Amino acid sequence: MKNGYVYDPLNGINGQIMDIAAKDGKIVDRVDEHKARIVDASGMTVMPGGVDIHTHIAGGEVNSGRLLRPEDHFKDYESRTLLTRSGVGRSIPSTFTTGYRYCRMGYTTVMNPSMSPLEAKHTHEELNDTPMVDKASYPLLGDWWFVLEYLAQDNIEECARHIAWLMDSTKGYAIKIVNPGGLEAWGFGHNVKNLDDQVPHFCITPREIVRGLCKVNSLLRLPHTIHLHTNNLGKPDNYLTALETMKCVENLAAENKPAIHVTHCQFSAFKGDDWRTMQSGAEEIAKYINNHTHVTTDMGQIIFTDTTTMTADGPFQYDLYGLTGNKWVNHDVETETSAGIVPFRYRRKSYVHAVQWSIGLELALLIKDPWKIFMTTDHPNAGPFTSYPKIIAWLLSRKAREASLKRINARARSRSLLPSIDRELSLYEIAIVTRAGQAKALGLKNKGHLGLGADADIAIYNFNPEKTDLSRKYRTARRAFKRAAYTIKSGEIVSQNGEIIKSVNGTTMWADVELSHPAEVTEDFKKRFREYWTVEFENYPVSAEGLKASLPIRVEAKV
Ligand SMILES: [Zn+2]
After folding, report:
1. CATH code for 46-440+449-500?
2. What is the pLDDT of residues 372-390, one digit of tens each?
């Protein structure tokens, strides 16, 4: 790649004109130019391949969503070509189409944030069928029965060994916690209301689950922090719960290191007693995050469109079903977790939806350090990932925000903090919130940058950053980020001007934890499997051979 304007924040490169060489899938110092394929990136913007820390693209709930919504299929479909397979779906595209669409936007790594351990095999089958990108999954562990039992006994070490076994069995990457304790309570038709509520039958509270798993995470030295969807998500006044959750692991953080990732923060930043008085709690959340070093977060930015909400937070989805009267799936995953799916339309003229739209952007702009907040839509919950170019434009351009503000609900507009915020992210900062920061938070050492030895995943966008004032010409940014001029995956040009020109697999990454004293699989453990699960212990694990291209990320645990 020659003569591109390079934005590589992890290496401090801010728009310098550079050449970048790749060989055997990695960034190298130099190559023999006579033998190499040269990409002329003169007058173009070059970034590492995009990284998405939170996007529901595979597994039980995604597939149930597809089944629930045939209307989502005929709205949007892609025909097969000589190189690509056909596919359908707008908010919940089929597997191949998902891979192609990410690739067209210059994304090369995506993290599937919600995998029921029991449904890990299905999840990996779908990830095997998602081409063009590297991927990984976070198993849902915050309400798993054995986890709750060990934590209730304060037996952190045994819990850690057990979770190392689960990471291997599910080929998982990070610990996902959704509405801790609330999903177990939902099995009995209840929920938990605050961090100190008792979880039925387990003698444990959400606070103890979060703190316990945070300790487990550091014992196991997993690459990412715990990845948490807060209690009370999607409810008025829940910003207090979000603040309390971040505070509860404050003293567990190693110096200047994150200890918790609070995901799709927009959904956890509501203030006000009810929907009528609901307003933004973004200022309070941003203030807390600005003053602390142990939290990272992502936006969960609302897009005004028709989409499909899906989460392991069964009780929340039940409430959403109650609010909308739309069709609904409720799923109880045996002893492990729950799930719910409800189609949803975010409307500009709805007061609540417009406030939510504003909250996501307020968070991204009020949190000063871009290494702490990343761009997501919690795909497809707040909108499909294909809307990312729109969000980039809002972040880059006050003018783009003003144009959208004009069209939203008037009361929401009058209360929005956005008119008082002048900040416009630079391209360097965009590169942080869309790839470098996400890779860093995930502990993906070879991704999100273009230094020597990094994976040769590169996105080239067709605009000249010196000549284009993106703050004014935000539509140019939107177009460019929608269809990358080139996407390079592992050193190969896989897409050009938004067309897939080569189909590649991508690897599935998982945390391969090495323990000094591995968990013993006792007869009692197997017996309980027989008693409580619908599958036998022997049929539970996903083997590395079950992954099309397995990439274990080796970690040495402290237990
Ligand atoms: Zn999510």
Report:
1. 3.20.20.140
2. 999 999 999 999 999 999 9
